[in-house]
Write a structure and sequence with these properties.
The chain is mostly helical. The protein has 2 domains: 1-53, Orthogonal Bundle (Arc Repressor Mutant, subunit A), CATH 1.10.10; 60-195, Tetracycline Repressor, domain 2 (Orthogonal Bundle), CATH 1.10.357.10. The protein contains 10 helices and no strands.
Length: 201
Amino acid sequence: MESSQLNVGKDEVREQVVQSARQVFARYGYKKTALDDIAREARKGKSTIYYYFKSKDEIFKAVIDAEAEIRNKAIEDQISPILDPMQKLRTYIYVRMVTLKMVANYYEAIKNDLLDNLYFVNSFRNDHFEEEVKQVKNMLSDGIEKEIFTIQNPELTSKTIVTLLHGFEVPQILKNLSDEELQKSVDEMLNILFFGIVTKK
């Protein structure tokens, strides 16, 4: 019992550090943030920070993971009531792109540190790739079962869709598209996905 309470306490301190780091990274950006800034915001000594995290990179990864959870919940809240597979996929893609601004640190990392830290940022994006693929594949499989989608390889198709979405994030952020512009871009993308580019004869 005492050990369990101790673990809960440790988890709470770690979460406090992550949330404090989230605010600091959002305020100063990844490059300008120092461990001293995070320790000050969390009101913890640097030794406490190092107890939970080996480096600033590791803290930033934890922040990105925490923001991904917030974003995923927002997406799930929007798509879970939808029964039609085509509308569900459409809503998933749109909400996924709109909620990009919710994850401030991930957003700013791509926007401000794109050239200097491309591989660094992509490593975090790749961590959640398979999770997204699984989610999209479930929607595609549901559409196949309901005879709405005709897909020979749901696994490959879901990976292709997620890869396209990742590629679309960068221009969306750099161009700072409005919600209306984003909606049009998503609609164009989905029209190609659903109906193709070849004229039906």
